């Protein structure tokens, strides 16, 4: 049937909702018939992909509409076009069949597709005899979606997409384009409202800000060499091995022009992933950390957001070069024995016009009601976790980072803000759940689904919750019977209580600490209720909070450094995995800023170099002495020895592990030297003084116990240096 003039006019204007019904090859009573839009062409000859001439088309509209009979059956075709002495070839995108199949439709509709990143987005593929790019995007309420890019002059009339009505996905295969091309989607929403050009939610690469287009990424060709690393963690119980995490903002750890590589970095803002690998990985190995945890590496438009306002969940930021560079970094870290964790942000997303906000002209990824869909703290949108397609999008993103980039785990940001409907909201600003409560059960279901998916498919993977409340069962299995509706299924949880209480204590003048003794002891009341990570993170050294060194009390610099060393010793001796933000390992004096590199010059100052050496030795001891890590998450590995000496501000405990020598940790949090302190020991015999924060090599006063003490009758008289933490290892 010949299309109506109105239909052809809509086709030429780029407003026809079903271009595949008119364009390409169609079989009819008179044989196969071809129709194509070929702007600028005067003649068009149809060829099979093999090169055989199958017909000649006539131009029926000066805007480039051609029609004509062709021989053979329906098949992909290409056109030889001429105009004004020029000639070129165009392979007809509308002569190809769909790429997605019925099983994709079924799983996408169910919200159970766990390979969406193989299906949606832009993929360079071979399809029906041609090489090109398959584009697919979810926009169920759109009237029309077109791919626009630097390959079609950003013209929405050139490549409108095929709508898969049952699932709301639009797709098109465009032959003869390749990786490296910039693109977006032109979305016409309900009622014909044209949206701002949208970046691809599944884009695997993006332009460097301030540009915001998605970029077609080449197929993954990286040859991984980390099988040994992954096999090790797959066979390991992470609760019972040392985990010491170095938290890093990749844009400001070092910057070109500010370190030894100054001459090669002139004029550049950031090191590439390969340059970071050459500098960061050896440093982390030398310092004894087991993992690097990056602040979010996904694409984000605004540098001061540190990546927490992400607009490209599937794309490593273009600030650091090509995505393949991130794969090389992770592989290099793994080969060096270092795990890589990334900060993951499913709690909110920015409302930038090119992002997910009202993606198809409706509230698609977010709630329409701001009491559910808008976050007052960050002025951002909140994902509609109860919508199966949104849940699937986020779960697939977690799986993507594990599979494509071999990351070892995710630190999930702002979990508390997802769990409570009234988070940061006053009365009347939130909507109770169906039972009238404040719990966000949809978010709970999402977190459980994410954890089930990653732990089921990637052995050795870790998830860590930044969760600041007493929500029960954060690190319990999702089928646990204790918490309401099961545990959340995380591997670990940040111990925010430890961080808040102990930093408050260390900020107090030592003469007042006796009145706040419980700020150290109280944490052991719940230290084994979850699998904890002890975090001294970036959040503690920004927004006017100063540095960790600046938080320490002290009448002079010596006391401040001594307090910090004692605090680190207490933390490394305390049950729980460890996390330290970059710069704090050498006691950077200034508050951190993403706009500048760390103050590495301070390592020329003895006190700062001493702290760095202390952290290095703490990491080495933590990794090599089983009692310090093997029961980090189990109460059987901890025993108080001195819990109530508030007057002297002394704390002592034993760390234990089956079949391993016991360690005694003792902290003196006053500037007074205790020359003959009667310290209980769990066993009589010789105890080696393995670590002493007051040693001269760390910048201390050099007080100590001449290498060790001997316990008799359950105790020994020990020297407790001022503002210090010591560790004694039993030697028999």
Automatic annotation (TrEMBL):
<dbReference type="GO" id="GO:0005978">
    <property type="term" value="P:glycogen biosynthetic process"/>
</dbReference>
<keyword id="KW-0321">Glycogen metabolism</keyword>
<dbReference type="InterPro" id="IPR006048">
    <property type="entry name" value="A-amylase/branching_C"/>
</dbReference>
<keyword id="KW-0328">Glycosyltransferase</keyword>
<keyword id="KW-0320">Glycogen biosynthesis</keyword>
<dbReference type="InterPro" id="IPR054169">
    <property type="entry name" value="GlgB_N"/>
</dbReference>
<feature type="domain" description="Glycosyl hydrolase family 13 catalytic">
    <location>
        <begin position="247"/>
        <end position="631"/>
    </location>
</feature>
<comment type="similarity">
    <text>Belongs to the glycosyl hydrolase 13 family. GlgB subfamily.</text>
</comment>
<dbReference type="InterPro" id="IPR037439">
    <property type="entry name" value="Branching_enzy"/>
</dbReference>
<comment type="subunit">
    <text>Monomer.</text>
</comment>
<dbReference type="GO" id="GO:0003844">
    <property type="term" value="F:1,4-alpha-glucan branching enzyme activity"/>
</dbReference>
<dbReference type="InterPro" id="IPR017853">
    <property type="entry name" value="GH"/>
</dbReference>
<feature type="active site" description="Proton donor">
    <location>
        <position position="466"/>
    </location>
</feature>
<protein>
    <recommendedName>
        <fullName>1,4-alpha-glucan branching enzyme GlgB</fullName>
        <ecNumber>2.4.1.18</ecNumber>
    </recommendedName>
</protein>
<dbReference type="InterPro" id="IPR013780">
    <property type="entry name" value="Glyco_hydro_b"/>
</dbReference>
<comment type="function">
    <text>Catalyzes the formation of the alpha-1,6-glucosidic linkages in glycogen by scission of a 1,4-alpha-linked oligosaccharide from growing alpha-1,4-glucan chains and the subsequent attachment of the oligosaccharide to the alpha-1,6 position.</text>
</comment>
<dbReference type="Pfam" id="PF02806">
    <property type="entry name" value="Alpha-amylase_C"/>
</dbReference>
<dbReference type="InterPro" id="IPR006047">
    <property type="entry name" value="GH13_cat_dom"/>
</dbReference>
<dbReference type="InterPro" id="IPR044143">
    <property type="entry name" value="GlgB_N_E_set_prok"/>
</dbReference>
<dbReference type="GO" id="GO:0005829">
    <property type="term" value="C:cytosol"/>
</dbReference>
<dbReference type="Pfam" id="PF22019">
    <property type="entry name" value="GlgB_N"/>
</dbReference>
<keyword id="KW-0119">Carbohydrate metabolism</keyword>
<dbReference type="InterPro" id="IPR014756">
    <property type="entry name" value="Ig_E-set"/>
</dbReference>
<keyword id="KW-0808">Transferase</keyword>
<dbReference type="Pfam" id="PF02922">
    <property type="entry name" value="CBM_48"/>
</dbReference>
<dbReference type="InterPro" id="IPR013783">
    <property type="entry name" value="Ig-like_fold"/>
</dbReference>
<dbReference type="GO" id="GO:0043169">
    <property type="term" value="F:cation binding"/>
</dbReference>
<comment type="pathway">
    <text>Glycan biosynthesis; glycogen biosynthesis.</text>
</comment>
<dbReference type="InterPro" id="IPR006407">
    <property type="entry name" value="GlgB"/>
</dbReference>
<dbReference type="GO" id="GO:0004553">
    <property type="term" value="F:hydrolase activity, hydrolyzing O-glycosyl compounds"/>
</dbReference>
<feature type="active site" description="Nucleophile">
    <location>
        <position position="413"/>
    </location>
</feature>
<dbReference type="InterPro" id="IPR004193">
    <property type="entry name" value="Glyco_hydro_13_N"/>
</dbReference>
């Amino acid at each position: 049937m010949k299309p109506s003039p109105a239909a052809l006019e809509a086709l030429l204007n780029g407003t026809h909702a079903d271009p595949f019904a008119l364009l390409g090859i169609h079989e009819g009573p008179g044989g196969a018939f071809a129709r194509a839009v070929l702007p600028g062409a005067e003649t068009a000859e149809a060829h099979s992909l093999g090169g055989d001439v199958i017909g000649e088309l006539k131009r029926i509209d000066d805007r480039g509409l051609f029609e004509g009979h062709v021989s053979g059956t329906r098949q992909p075709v290409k056109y030889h076009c001429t105009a004004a002495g020029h000639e070129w070839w165009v392979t007809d995108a509308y002569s190809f069949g769909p790429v997605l199949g019925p099983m994709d439709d079924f799983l996408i509709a169910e919200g159970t597709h766990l390979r969406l990143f193989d299906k949606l987005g832009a993929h360079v593929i071979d399809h029906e005899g041609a090489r090109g790019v398959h584009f697919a995007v979810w926009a169920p309420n759109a009237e029309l979606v077109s791919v626009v890019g630097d390959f079609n002059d950003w013209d929405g009339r050139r490549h409108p997409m095929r709508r898969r009505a049952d699932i709301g996905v639009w797709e098109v295969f465009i032959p003869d384009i390749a990786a490296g091309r910039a693109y977006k989607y032109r979305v016409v929403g309900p009622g014909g409202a044209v949206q701002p050009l949208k970046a691809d939610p599944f884009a695997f690469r993006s332009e460097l800000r301030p540009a915001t287009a998605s970029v077609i990424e080449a197929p993954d060709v990286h040859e991984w060499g980390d099988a040994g690393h992954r096999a090790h963690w797959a066979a390991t119980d992470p609760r019972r091995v040392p985990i010491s995490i170095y938290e890093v903002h990749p844009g400001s750890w070092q910057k070109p022009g500010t370190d030894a590589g100054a001459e090669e970095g002139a004029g550049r803002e950031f090191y590439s992933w390969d340059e970071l690998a050459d500098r960061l990985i050896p440093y982390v190995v030398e310092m004894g950390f087991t993992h690097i945890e990056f602040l979010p590496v996904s694409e984000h438009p605004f540098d001061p957001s540190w990546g927490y306002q992400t607009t490209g969940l599937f794309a490593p930021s273009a600030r650091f070069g090509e995505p393949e560079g991130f794969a090389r970094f992770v592989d290099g870290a793994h080969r060096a024995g270092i795990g890589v964790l990334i900060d993951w942000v499913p709690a909110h997303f920015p409302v930038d016009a090119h992002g997910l906000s009202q993606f198809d002209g409706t509230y698609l990824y977010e709630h329409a009601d701001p009491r559910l869909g808008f976050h007052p703290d960050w002025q951002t949108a909140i994902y509609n976790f109860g919508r199966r397609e949104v849940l699937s999008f986020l779960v697939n993103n977690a799986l993507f980072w594990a599979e494509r980039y071999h990351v070892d785990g995710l630190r999930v940001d702002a979990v508390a803000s997802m769990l409570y409907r009234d988070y940061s909201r006053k009365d009347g600003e939130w909507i109770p759940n169906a039972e009238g409560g404040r719990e966000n059960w949809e978010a709970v279901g999402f977190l459980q689904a994410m954890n089930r998916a990653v732990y089921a498919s990637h052995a050795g993977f870790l998830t860590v919750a930044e969760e600041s409340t007493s929500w029960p069962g954060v690190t319990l299995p999702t089928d646990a019977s204790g918490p309401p509706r099961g545990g959340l299924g995380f591997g670990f949880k940040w111990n925010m209580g430890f961080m808040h209480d102990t930093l408050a204590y260390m900020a107090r003048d030592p003469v007042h600490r006796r009145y706040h003794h419980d700020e150290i002891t109280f944490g052991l009341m719940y230290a084994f209720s979850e699998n904890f990570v002890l975090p001294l993170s970036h959040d503690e050294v920004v927004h006017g909070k100063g540095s960790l060194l600046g938080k320490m009390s002290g009448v002079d610099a010596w006391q401040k450094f001594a307090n910090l060393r004692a605090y680190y010793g207490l933390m490394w001796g305390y049950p729980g995995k460890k996390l330290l933000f970059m710069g704090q390992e050498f006691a950077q004096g200034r508050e951190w800023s993403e706009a500048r590199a760390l103050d590495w010059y301070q390592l020329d100052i003895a006190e700062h170099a001493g702290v760095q050496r202390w952290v290095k030795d703490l990491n080495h001891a933590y990794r090599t002495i089983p009692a310090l890590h093997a029961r980090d998450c189990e109460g059987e590995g901890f025993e108080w020895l001195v819990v109530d000496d508030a007057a002297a501000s002394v704390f002592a405990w034993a760390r234990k592990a089956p079949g391993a020598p016991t360690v005694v940790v003792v902290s003196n949090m006053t500037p007074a030297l205790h020359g003959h302190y009667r310290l209980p020991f769990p066993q009589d015999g010789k105890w080696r003084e393995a670590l002493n924060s007051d040693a001269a090599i760390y910048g201390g006063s050099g007080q100590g116990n001449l290498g060790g003490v001997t316990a008799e009758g359950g105790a020994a008289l020990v020297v407790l240096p001022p503002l210090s933490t010591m560790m004694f290892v039993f030697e028999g």
